[in-house]
Amino acid sequence: MAHEDSASVEIRTAARASLIPTVRAVASDLAARADFDLDTISDLRMAVDEACATLVGLAAPGASLRCTFDVGAERIDVVARVETADAATLPTDSFGWRILQTLADRVDVESDSGDGEGSALTIRLHKLAGPGL
């Protein structure tokens, strides 16, 4: 969901682990351009990496990983989505989920019907520009 004072960037790649560094680099660049501090940039980069790695592990063969970055004043919202072959679920009691909760200011997961025949999983991350904001 884009806000009036924000800019959106969307990238789509094959859902393969070898392409996650590209998504991570985009997240870092956008946060740096928005004047986020170095610790926050690092947290966002690691959160995006974990979210994408989690989704890629659940992706249907041949699926795409779609990431949207909504950059606004003092915050970045990230939506990462992948099509799954069946009604895959993301466990919220896993170590990876705890990492996401620690690195992002807010994290949510959604499961719904996908664009094709299967279903889709979406991870939403919200990161503020600095501590205590």
Question: Total number of β-strand segments?
Answer: 5
SS class: alpha+beta
Summed up, the helix count is: 3
Quote the average pLDDT.
Answer: 90
What percent of residues adopt helix (DSSP H or I)? 25-40%
Regions with little confidence, pLDDT below 50 for 5+ residues: none
What's the overall geometry? globular
Q: How far apart are the termini?
A: 20 Å
Give a short account of the largest sheet. 5 strands, antiparallel
What portion of the residues fall into strands of 2 or more residues? 25-35%
Characterise the protein shown here.
- With 133 residues, the chain is α+β, with helices and mostly antiparallel strands.
- It contains three helices and five strands; from the N terminus they run E-H-H-E-E-H-E-E.
- Helix 1 (20-33) packs antiparallel against helix 2 and helix 2 (38-58) packs antiparallel against helix 3 (95-103).
- The longest helix has 21 residues, at 38-58.
- The model has no long low-confidence stretch (mean pLDDT 90).
Topology summary:
Elements: E1 7-14, H1 20-33, H2 38-58, E2 64-72, E3 75-84, H3 95-103, E4 106-113, E5 119-128
Antiparallel strand pairs: 1-2, 2-3, 3-5, 4-5
Helix pairs in contact: 1-2, 2-3
Short précis:
The protein is of the alpha+beta class and 133 residues long. 33% of the residues lie in helices and 34% in strands.
